[in-house]
Protein backbone atom coordinates (compact mmCIF):
# COMPACT_ATOMS: atom_id res chain seq x y z
CA UNK A 1 0.00 0.00 0.00
CA UNK A 2 1.00 3.58 -0.46
CA UNK A 3 0.79 5.89 2.51
CA UNK A 4 -0.99 8.48 0.41
CA UNK A 5 -3.49 6.31 -1.42
CA UNK A 6 -3.88 2.60 -0.61
CA UNK A 7 -6.30 2.00 -3.49
CA UNK A 8 -4.26 2.52 -6.64
CA UNK A 9 -6.20 0.93 -9.50
CA UNK A 10 -4.50 2.42 -12.57
CA UNK A 11 -0.73 2.46 -13.07
CA UNK A 12 0.59 4.66 -15.90
CA UNK A 13 4.16 3.69 -16.75
CA UNK A 14 6.61 5.48 -19.00
CA UNK A 15 8.64 3.36 -21.41
CA UNK A 16 12.17 4.56 -22.34
CA UNK A 17 14.23 4.90 -19.16
CA UNK A 18 11.49 3.45 -16.94
CA UNK A 19 10.44 0.07 -18.31
CA UNK A 20 12.70 0.05 -21.37
CA UNK A 21 16.46 0.62 -21.14
CA UNK A 22 17.56 3.67 -23.10
CA UNK A 23 21.38 3.27 -23.10
CA UNK A 24 21.83 6.46 -25.11
CA UNK A 25 19.55 5.47 -27.98
CA UNK A 26 17.54 8.69 -27.85
CA UNK A 27 20.71 10.76 -28.10
CA UNK A 28 21.99 8.61 -30.97
CA UNK A 29 18.74 9.02 -32.89
CA UNK A 30 18.66 12.74 -32.17
CA UNK A 31 22.22 13.14 -33.40
CA UNK A 32 21.23 11.46 -36.67
CA UNK A 33 18.18 13.72 -36.99
CA UNK A 34 20.18 16.90 -36.35
CA UNK A 35 22.78 15.94 -38.93
CA UNK A 36 20.00 15.16 -41.39
CA UNK A 37 18.92 18.81 -41.10
CA UNK A 38 22.50 20.07 -41.32
CA UNK A 39 22.60 21.13 -37.66
CA UNK A 40 25.41 20.60 -35.17
CA UNK A 41 24.08 18.12 -32.59
CA UNK A 42 26.72 19.13 -30.03
CA UNK A 43 25.10 22.52 -29.65
CA UNK A 44 21.64 21.06 -29.08
CA UNK A 45 22.19 17.93 -27.02
CA UNK A 46 21.93 19.69 -23.63
CA UNK A 47 18.37 20.73 -24.45
CA UNK A 48 17.53 17.18 -25.52
CA UNK A 49 18.83 15.80 -22.22
CA UNK A 50 16.96 18.39 -20.18
CA UNK A 51 13.67 17.63 -21.95
CA UNK A 52 13.82 13.84 -21.86
CA UNK A 53 10.26 12.62 -21.46
CA UNK A 54 8.71 15.41 -23.51
CA UNK A 55 6.99 14.67 -26.81
CA UNK A 56 9.76 14.49 -29.39
CA UNK A 57 7.93 16.65 -31.91
CA UNK A 58 7.64 19.36 -29.23
CA UNK A 59 11.39 19.21 -28.67
CA UNK A 60 12.05 19.59 -32.39
CA UNK A 61 9.61 22.50 -32.65
CA UNK A 62 11.58 24.28 -29.95
CA UNK A 63 14.95 23.55 -31.56
CA UNK A 64 14.15 24.12 -35.22
CA UNK A 65 11.27 26.59 -35.10
CA UNK A 66 9.56 26.13 -38.43
CA UNK A 67 6.94 23.38 -38.47
CA UNK A 68 8.25 21.84 -41.69
CA UNK A 69 11.76 21.57 -40.24
CA UNK A 70 10.44 20.16 -36.97
CA UNK A 71 8.41 17.51 -38.80
CA UNK A 72 11.38 16.58 -40.97
CA UNK A 73 13.60 16.26 -37.90
CA UNK A 74 10.98 14.12 -36.18
CA UNK A 75 10.74 11.79 -39.18
CA UNK A 76 14.53 11.46 -39.26
CA UNK A 77 14.59 10.78 -35.53
CA UNK A 78 11.93 8.08 -35.76
CA UNK A 79 13.72 6.43 -38.71
CA UNK A 80 17.04 6.42 -36.85
CA UNK A 81 15.46 5.02 -33.70
CA UNK A 82 13.68 2.32 -35.72
CA UNK A 83 17.04 1.23 -37.13
CA UNK A 84 18.40 0.89 -33.60
CA UNK A 85 15.38 -1.19 -32.61
CA UNK A 86 15.78 -3.39 -35.70
CA UNK A 87 19.45 -3.87 -34.78
CA UNK A 88 18.41 -5.40 -31.46
CA UNK A 89 19.53 -2.43 -29.37
CA UNK A 90 16.36 -2.25 -27.25
CA UNK A 91 16.10 -4.18 -23.98
CA UNK A 92 13.72 -4.14 -21.04
CA UNK A 93 14.77 -2.69 -17.69
CA UNK A 94 15.63 -5.70 -15.49
CA UNK A 95 12.51 -6.81 -13.65
CA UNK A 96 10.17 -4.54 -15.63
CA UNK A 97 8.09 -7.26 -17.25
CA UNK A 98 7.77 -9.14 -13.97
CA UNK A 99 6.72 -5.92 -12.26
CA UNK A 100 3.99 -5.29 -14.83
CA UNK A 101 2.76 -8.87 -14.51
CA UNK A 102 2.75 -8.60 -10.72
CA UNK A 103 0.84 -5.30 -10.82
CA UNK A 104 -1.72 -6.97 -13.07
CA UNK A 105 -1.95 -9.93 -10.70
CA UNK A 106 -2.64 -7.44 -7.88
CA UNK A 107 -5.74 -6.38 -9.80
CA UNK A 108 -4.35 -3.13 -11.15
CA UNK A 109 -4.55 -1.96 -14.77
CA UNK A 110 -1.25 -0.97 -16.38
CA UNK A 111 -0.96 1.52 -19.26
CA UNK A 112 2.35 2.10 -21.07
CA UNK A 113 3.05 5.63 -22.34
CA UNK A 114 5.78 7.27 -24.40
CA UNK A 115 6.92 10.54 -25.94
CA UNK A 116 7.69 8.69 -29.19
CA UNK A 117 5.41 8.40 -32.19
CA UNK A 118 3.08 5.40 -32.45
CA UNK A 119 5.22 3.63 -35.07
CA UNK A 120 8.27 3.73 -32.80
CA UNK A 121 6.28 2.70 -29.75
CA UNK A 122 4.86 -0.29 -31.61
CA UNK A 123 8.32 -1.26 -32.88
CA UNK A 124 9.66 -1.28 -29.30
CA UNK A 125 6.70 -3.30 -28.02
CA UNK A 126 7.14 -5.83 -30.81
CA UNK A 127 10.89 -6.12 -30.27
CA UNK A 128 10.36 -6.85 -26.58
CA UNK A 129 7.40 -9.18 -27.12
CA UNK A 130 5.20 -6.80 -25.13
CA UNK A 131 2.33 -6.22 -27.55
CA UNK A 132 -0.10 -8.06 -25.24
CA UNK A 133 1.54 -7.15 -21.92
CA UNK A 134 -0.67 -4.13 -21.19
CA UNK A 135 -4.29 -3.58 -22.27
CA UNK A 136 -3.56 -0.02 -23.43
CA UNK A 137 -0.53 1.84 -24.76
CA UNK A 138 -0.52 5.56 -25.48
CA UNK A 139 1.65 8.03 -27.40
CA UNK A 140 1.09 11.82 -27.53
CA UNK A 141 -1.01 11.59 -30.71
CA UNK A 142 -3.47 9.32 -28.89
CA UNK A 143 -4.12 12.06 -26.33
CA UNK A 144 -4.47 15.21 -28.41
CA UNK A 145 -0.82 15.56 -29.41
CA UNK A 146 0.60 17.63 -26.56
CA UNK A 147 2.45 14.90 -24.67
CA UNK A 148 4.29 15.54 -21.40
CA UNK A 149 4.56 17.57 -19.22
CA UNK A 150 0.84 17.99 -19.88
CA UNK A 151 -1.44 15.53 -18.07
CA UNK A 152 -3.20 14.46 -21.27
CA UNK A 153 -1.87 10.89 -21.58
CA UNK A 154 -2.53 10.17 -17.91
CA UNK A 155 -6.07 11.50 -18.14
CA UNK A 156 -6.66 9.66 -21.42
CA UNK A 157 -5.59 6.43 -19.70
CA UNK A 158 -8.01 7.25 -16.86
CA UNK A 159 -10.91 7.82 -19.27
CA UNK A 160 -10.23 4.91 -21.63
CA UNK A 161 -9.69 2.25 -18.98
CA UNK A 162 -12.50 3.40 -16.66
CA UNK A 163 -11.02 1.33 -13.82
CA UNK A 164 -10.49 4.16 -11.32
CA UNK A 165 -13.20 6.10 -9.52
CA UNK A 166 -11.05 9.22 -9.43
CA UNK A 167 -7.59 10.47 -10.30
CA UNK A 168 -6.30 9.79 -6.78
CA UNK A 169 -6.45 6.09 -7.68
CA UNK A 170 -3.80 6.61 -10.38
CA UNK A 171 -0.07 6.01 -10.00
CA UNK A 172 2.25 7.69 -12.52
CA UNK A 173 5.80 6.37 -12.81
CA UNK A 174 8.67 7.66 -14.95
CA UNK A 175 12.34 8.59 -15.08
CA UNK A 176 12.09 12.30 -15.96
CA UNK A 177 10.87 15.53 -14.43
CA UNK A 178 8.36 15.73 -17.30
CA UNK A 179 6.81 12.44 -16.18
CA UNK A 180 6.52 13.80 -12.63
CA UNK A 181 4.92 17.04 -13.77
CA UNK A 182 2.37 15.22 -15.90
CA UNK A 183 1.41 13.05 -12.91
CA UNK A 184 1.11 16.02 -10.56
CA UNK A 185 -0.96 17.98 -13.08
CA UNK A 186 -3.27 14.98 -13.53
CA UNK A 187 -3.83 14.83 -9.76
CA UNK A 188 -2.46 11.29 -9.47
CA UNK A 189 -2.43 9.78 -6.00
CA UNK A 190 1.12 8.48 -6.43
CA UNK A 191 3.84 10.07 -8.55
CA UNK A 192 7.03 8.00 -8.49
CA UNK A 193 10.37 8.62 -10.12
CA UNK A 194 12.83 5.86 -11.00
CA UNK A 195 16.62 6.16 -11.20
CA UNK A 196 17.11 4.04 -14.32
CA UNK A 197 16.80 6.86 -16.82
CA UNK A 198 17.45 10.50 -17.55
CA UNK A 199 17.04 12.50 -14.33
CA UNK A 200 18.39 12.15 -10.80
CA UNK A 201 16.52 12.03 -7.49
CA UNK A 202 16.83 15.76 -6.90
CA UNK A 203 15.29 16.64 -10.25
CA UNK A 204 12.51 14.08 -9.80
CA UNK A 205 11.58 15.33 -6.32
CA UNK A 206 11.76 18.96 -7.43
CA UNK A 207 9.23 18.14 -10.16
CA UNK A 208 6.83 16.60 -7.65
CA UNK A 209 7.80 12.95 -7.11
CA UNK A 210 6.27 11.58 -3.92
CA UNK A 211 8.51 8.50 -4.15
CA UNK A 212 11.88 7.84 -5.79
CA UNK A 213 12.61 4.18 -6.55
CA UNK A 214 15.74 2.44 -7.70
CA UNK A 215 13.74 0.93 -10.55
CA UNK A 216 10.22 0.02 -11.58
CA UNK A 217 10.87 -3.46 -10.17
CA UNK A 218 10.25 -1.98 -6.70
CA UNK A 219 6.80 -0.62 -7.56
CA UNK A 220 4.64 -3.71 -6.82
CA UNK A 221 6.10 -3.90 -3.33
CA UNK A 222 5.41 -0.21 -2.71
CA UNK A 223 1.81 -0.61 -3.82
CA UNK A 224 0.98 -3.98 -2.38
Automatic annotation (TrEMBL):
<dbReference type="InterPro" id="IPR023214">
    <property type="entry name" value="HAD_sf"/>
</dbReference>
<keyword id="KW-0378">Hydrolase</keyword>
<dbReference type="InterPro" id="IPR022468">
    <property type="entry name" value="PhnX-like"/>
</dbReference>
<dbReference type="GO" id="GO:0005829">
    <property type="term" value="C:cytosol"/>
</dbReference>
<dbReference type="InterPro" id="IPR023198">
    <property type="entry name" value="PGP-like_dom2"/>
</dbReference>
<dbReference type="InterPro" id="IPR036412">
    <property type="entry name" value="HAD-like_sf"/>
</dbReference>
<dbReference type="Pfam" id="PF00702">
    <property type="entry name" value="Hydrolase"/>
</dbReference>
<dbReference type="GO" id="GO:0006281">
    <property type="term" value="P:DNA repair"/>
</dbReference>
<protein>
    <submittedName>
        <fullName>Phosphonatase-like hydrolase</fullName>
    </submittedName>
</protein>
<dbReference type="GO" id="GO:0008967">
    <property type="term" value="F:phosphoglycolate phosphatase activity"/>
</dbReference>
<dbReference type="InterPro" id="IPR050155">
    <property type="entry name" value="HAD-like_hydrolase_sf"/>
</dbReference>
